[in-house]
Amino acid sequence: MMNLTRPSLSIILFLFFILPINSTSALTKYNVLNFGAKPNGKTDTTKAFLMAWKAACASADSTIIYVPKGRYLLGSMAFQGGCKSPQIIFRIDGTLVAPQDYRVLGKSTDWLSFEGVNGVSILGGALDAKGPSLWACKASHSNCPSGATTLSFTNSKNIRIRSLLSLNSQMFHVVINGCENVDVQGVRIIAAGNSPNTDGIHVQLSKNVNIIKCSIKTGDDCISIGPGTKNLWIEQVTCGPGHGISIGSLAKDLKEEGVQNVTVRNTIFLGTQNGLRIKSWARPSTGFVQGVRFTDSLMRNVQNPIVIDQNYCPHNLNCPNQVSGIKIKDIIYEGIRGTSSTQVAIKFDCSPKNPCTGIKLQNVNLSYLNKPAQSFCSNVRGKALNFVRP
């Protein structure tokens, strides 16, 4: 049975009472300008930001690192945990800017990374990663670096991200990896529709994560959900351009952690490649996807509004001739409506060895060019209730 509920009371109390947005006056304040940061967008202020973090981290008080208006040139930075401070708030009124030469960041895994932290909040501000020059390099098939994720949290707890703008990331915009109790609200993500591997928000190996009231325009998945994700709540998200909201790709490893208890509700997809997608490679795996509820989604000119693909193989390259071991069960689609830009609006292409089970469609209405759309079902078991078209 699914246990799809909102986060626990303890998480809500943490997010809205212990860390209220407007109660920063009682916190010990560290202004990055006092550590030598220059808001001119030209002077490297990496050292100043790291010094401000070191001071806040060493404080026994709750702290705020304040970034006034202006543009701050920053290289790759890792903010390490083990802090004495019970909470550290980054209050950003300015814009953090990556170096103009994409190779400076491109060799790094992350631009701004938080590792092993507890009680960190990022409030406001903009992150401009200057990604287009690297995308152009990749488009020309030159010898290009992979690129850096703009903002990552790894092995961290009690994280809050509010009203942040992530612009033109080289690779993923936001990564939540191995974290617990994460609340993301009011985040805007912007990158070109043809920008490669610029997933908006990626979640993996994490539990109790909320993503609410976000707008994501990018060149890959708006939200990608990886192995080991548990208790994920996505609500009021607008996606497009992009590749939709995707669980997977899974079955990258034989012994892969499963995905469970995911709710995606009240979402809008505008001209995206996919809407609601579950995807896995056709190879052995002990992984699974279960307890997923997709409700109240509006599709506008979406290529694949509803899709489960257990034969995922982009560009038909390096794909083993095997069957997916991922077990997919208890997936609900309810209140999904709008238009498909292709004739097949619902596609369930499941594994012959591990058929999809417990798939439920209820009140689904998808059309193609003002005509009835089609569905494709292979190795899937479930039921349709009330009005379902196709």
Automatic annotation (TrEMBL):
Pfam families on file: Glyco_hydro_28 (PF00295)
Primary location recorded for the protein, binned into one broad class: secreted
InterPro entries per the UniProt record, alphabetical: Glyco_hydro_28, PbH1, Pectin_lyas_fold, Pectin_lyase_fold/virulence
Family: Belongs to the glycosyl hydrolase 28 family.
Protein name as annotated: Pectate lyase superfamily protein domain-containing protein
Gene3D superfamilies recorded: Single-stranded right-handed beta-helix, Pectin lyase-like (2.160.20.10)
Organism per entry: Gossypium darwinii
Subcellular location field: Secreted, Cell wall
Keywords recorded for this protein, A-Z: Cell wall, Cell wall biogenesis/degradation, Glycosidase, Hydrolase, Secreted, Signal
Molecular function in Gene Ontology: polygalacturonase activity
Keyword Signal carried by entry: yes
Cleaved signal peptide residues: 1-26
Keyword Cell wall biogenesis/degradation: yes
GO BP: carbohydrate metabolic process; cell wall organization
